[in-house]
């Protein structure tokens, strides 16, 4: 360990409080966005820092290392240049002005890439995972990519927690996803990681983001092919788990006369085997009920996205972005075996439930946006108009066979048909205005209004074997309509004063919501409600650069989690006659206050301590009717949840050809509440480690090995056991650097399925999931067309927290 620590110390230079600014353009005086800037030591030309110009071709950086350095400036298809900088001191202010790159006279094949972005980057308010060019990402899904990201844990149901805090929100290109629960999990499982450029992980987002998301935000940035013009890329993947899986995708870009057109699409065909074993102990009755599930799921998904940016002038850009997802989920002859046993192991009763599900779903989204830059000071106005629609039509047939303990028919079979339709329409207007002031500070302000309507119609029909026709079940069928509007405004300011830098913000949100239950019988409990409330959400980020080696940070935020639309829905969804799930329209929002302290050494190694306290916690729980042997899952507001976390980030450059990043977290979660007057107070400690190593080998080979391990912890009111995964990947660049062949293996040891324990009140349940997680993938990607044209801008759209709450099952 001492040798490793000394090695780390010798790899970094001292950092100071200084700045550098330049503007990059080509010979046509067009800005060059996303160009590569490399800061190297003058003495040995070793790379110290890699940077990129922004979408306007500007580079503004601070806290550079002190000493003598050179600057290498590169943009694909243009001649690179090298500049000798004046010696950088702790307070240097370097203004390089406008720098022009001229075209290459040689073929593209002669251009050599000399540096890549590190896999993990740390910033003041976020952690960035650079997915592009990673062999581990190729051929994987986005959900699998999240599972191996620092501080992220995905449970058996696809719920995402960040640094031990549940309820993390997922953003797509700067907007919160309009899916949650099973829908979000399916989307992420069907979204190829090849389409991802970066992951931004924010434990405590600022006030400029929607206040929703007490568990933090993970922003998934999709690729906007950094080289625009007539160019693109195509990829194909074959994977083998228990069943084969295939996917293919294409990205196209075209730029001419101030217009930039772009589009991408993918087709995914995934067949999975889902296996679960659930054991319910009824100790007072000396009985053990065991459920064994074995489901073959077939998923077909087509995703399309396209848009255009019109550079109306050097200061004004208008854009349109449209997307669509078309998914077909099919479950054929899924068998759920339920056995009632004595504690001695004798079978008393058996129930076989055969389930067939067809679930086509579609979602569409459209965005119109305007961005206007007033002057060179950074004063900027952005406007977004959004519309999204989600449509889901699920039909399931449940056939129940009732048998005695020795497999003799107990009564005639029954058949239950479930027809569930769900429609969600969302509208949003968003305005953001950035104002640099004369006091060298930057102010941001903005407004947002959104309107959402959901319409869910669930109808049940049932019959016994021998009956002539199905009977409409009025007692279980229901229609639920939910309407919600949220109006928000925020003010944000940031400034650097000497060794201090800060960002303060305040956001206000006013929510009006109505739920209307249209029951098909008067016997169903009325679920109609009206809510009207306003909340303030402050945030603060402070950083103090004590010395070139040490900097300290503090951040605070207050955030809200509103119930998911699906959790508000009072519908009942059956697994079998004794196990089902039901919504809760009486749910109210939960509020979280979070504090984080951090220390950064040499600008790279970080230590963080976090604390959060949540009131009125929205928690998934199980309830049980012991006499009837019925267990069902629902969501309720529990009393309080407290989280403590201690984290270490260790990006270690072991050798020039061997880089690594390791994240270590210690977490304690405590929950205090009641379930039907029974006290509930689970608490668990968790140790988590995630490490990734990249080896750059001769002849354009690259090898990656990584994995994670966690000792178990607390998710909602459920306790999960230890788990982890070992992942391997290798890639070969070929065909004049336009083709990349990748081979990777995920969860090699088949250890990523932890058991779940539910013990409170009269509940004593163990769940043993065995998902199809061990997979080998082969992926090939080929880039074609003109690679010498500059990139499209990356932008966010306006439908944020509303989209994160669609949940239909």
From TrEMBL:
SUPFAM superfamilies noted in UniProt: Cna protein B-type domain, Porins
Signal peptide bounds: 1-16
Domain TonB-dependent receptor plug stretches: 128-217
Subcellular location: Cell outer membrane
Pfam families per UniProt: OMP_b-brl_3, Plug
Main location: membrane
InterPro entries per the UniProt record, alphabetical: Beta-barrel_TonB_sf (IPR036942), OMP_b-brl_3 (IPR041700), Plug_dom (IPR012910), Plug_dom_sf (IPR037066)
UniProt keywords, alphabetically: Cell outer membrane, Membrane, Signal
Domain Outer membrane protein beta-barrel per the UniProt entry, residue ranges: 372-782
Superkingdom of origin organism: Bacteria
Descriptive protein name: Outer membrane beta-barrel protein
Species annotation: Aquirufa avitistagni
């Amino acid at each position: 360990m001492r040798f490793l620590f000394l090695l780390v110390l010798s790899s970094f230079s001292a950092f100071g409080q200084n700045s550098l600014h330049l503007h990059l353009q080509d010979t046509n005086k067009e800005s060059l966005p996303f160009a590569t800037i490399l800061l190297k030591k003058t003495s040995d030309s070793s790379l110290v820092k890699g940077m990129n110009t922004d979408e306007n071709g500007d580079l503004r950086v601070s806290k550079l290392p002190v000493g003598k350095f050179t600057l290498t400036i590169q943009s694909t298809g243009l001649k690179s240049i090298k500049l000798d900088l004046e010696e950088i001191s702790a307070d240097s202010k370097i203004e390089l002005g406008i720098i022009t790159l001229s075209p290459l006279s040689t073929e593209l094949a002669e251009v050599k890439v000399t540096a890549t972005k590190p896999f993990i980057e740390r910033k003041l308010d976020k952690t960035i995972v650079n997915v592009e060019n990673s062999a581990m990402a190729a051929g994987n899904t986005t959900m699998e990519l999240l599972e191996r990201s620092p501080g992220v844990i995905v449970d058996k149901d696809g719920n995402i927690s960040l640094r031990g805090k549940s309820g993390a929100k997922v953003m797509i290109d700067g907007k919160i996803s309009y899916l949650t629960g099973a829908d979000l999990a399916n989307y992420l499982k069907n979204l190829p990681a090849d389409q991802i450029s970066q992951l931004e992980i924010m434990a405590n987002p600022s006030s400029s983001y929607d206040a929703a998301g007490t568990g933090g935000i993970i922003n998934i940035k999709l690729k906007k092919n950094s080289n625009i013009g007539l160019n693109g890329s195509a990829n194909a993947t074959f994977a083998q788990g228990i069943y084969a899986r295939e996917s293919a995708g294409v990205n196209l870009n075209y730029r001419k006369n101030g217009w930039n057109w772009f589009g991408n699409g993918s087709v995914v065909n995934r067949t999975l085997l889902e296996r679960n074993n659930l054991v319910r102990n009824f100790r007072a009755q000396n009985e053990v009920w065991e459920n064994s599930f074995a489901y073959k799921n077939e998923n077909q998904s087509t995703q399309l996205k396209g848009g255009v940016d019109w550079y109306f002038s050097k200061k004004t850009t208008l854009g349109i972005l449209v997307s669509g997802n078309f998914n077909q989920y099919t479950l054929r002859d899924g068998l759920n075996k339920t056995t009632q046993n004595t504690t001695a192991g004798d079978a008393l009763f058996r129930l076989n439930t055969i389930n067939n599900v067809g679930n086509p779903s579609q979602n569409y989204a459209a965005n119109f946006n305007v961005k206007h830059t007033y002057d060179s000071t950074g004063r900027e106005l952005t406007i977004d108009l959004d519309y999204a629609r989600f449509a889901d039509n699920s039909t399931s047939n449940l056939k129940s066979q009732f048998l005695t303990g020795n497999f003799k028919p107990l009564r005639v079979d029954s058949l239950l048909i479930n027809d569930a339709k769900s429609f969600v329409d969302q509208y949003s207007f968003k305005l953001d205005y950035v104002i640099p002031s004369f006091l060298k500070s930057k102010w941001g302000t903005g407004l947002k209004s959104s309107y959402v309507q959901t319409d869910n119609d669930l109808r049940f029909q049932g019959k016994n074997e021998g009956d002539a026709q199905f009977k409409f079940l009025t007692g279980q069928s229901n229609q639920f309509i939910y309407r919600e509007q949220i109006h928000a405004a925020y003010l944000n300011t940031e400034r650097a004063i000497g060794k201090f830098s800060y960002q303060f913000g305040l956001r206000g949100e006013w929510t009006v919501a109505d739920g209307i239950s249209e029951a098909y019988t008067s016997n169903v409990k009325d679920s109609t409600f009206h809510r009207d409330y306003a909340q303030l959400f402050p945030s603060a980020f402070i950083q103090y650069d004590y010395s070139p080696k040490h900097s300290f940070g503090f951040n605070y935020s207050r955030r809200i989690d509103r119930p998911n639309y699906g959790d508000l829905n009072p519908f009942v969804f059956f697994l079998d006659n004794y196990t089902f799930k039901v919504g809760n329209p009486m749910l109210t929002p939960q509020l979280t206050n979070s504090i984080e302290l951090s220390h950064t050494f040499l600008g790279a190694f970080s230590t963080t301590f976090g604390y959060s306290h949540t009131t009125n916690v929205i928690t998934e729980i199980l309830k049980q009717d012991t006499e009837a042997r019925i267990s069902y899952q629902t969501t309720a507001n529990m009393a309080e949840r407290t989280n403590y976390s201690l984290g270490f980030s260790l990006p270690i450059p072991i050798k020039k050809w061997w880089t690594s990043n390791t994240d270590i977290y210690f977490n304690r979660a405590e929950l205090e509440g009641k379930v039907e007057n029974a006290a509930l107070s689970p608490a668990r400690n968790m140790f988590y480690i995630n490490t990734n190593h990249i080896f750059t080998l001769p002849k354009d080979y690259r090898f990656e090995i990584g994995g994670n391990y966690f000792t178990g912890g607390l998710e909602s009111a459920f306790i999960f056991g230890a788990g982890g995964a070992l992942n391997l990947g290798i890639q070969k660049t070929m065909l004049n650097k336009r083709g990349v062949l990748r081979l990777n293996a995920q969860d090699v040891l088949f250890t990523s399925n932890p058991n779940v324990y539910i013990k409170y009140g009269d509940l004593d349940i163990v769940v043993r999931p065995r998902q199809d997680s061990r997979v080998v993938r082969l992926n090939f990607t080929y880039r074609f067309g003109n690679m010498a044209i500059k990139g499209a801008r990356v932008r966010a759209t306006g439908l944020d927290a509303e989209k994160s709450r669609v949940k239909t099952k």
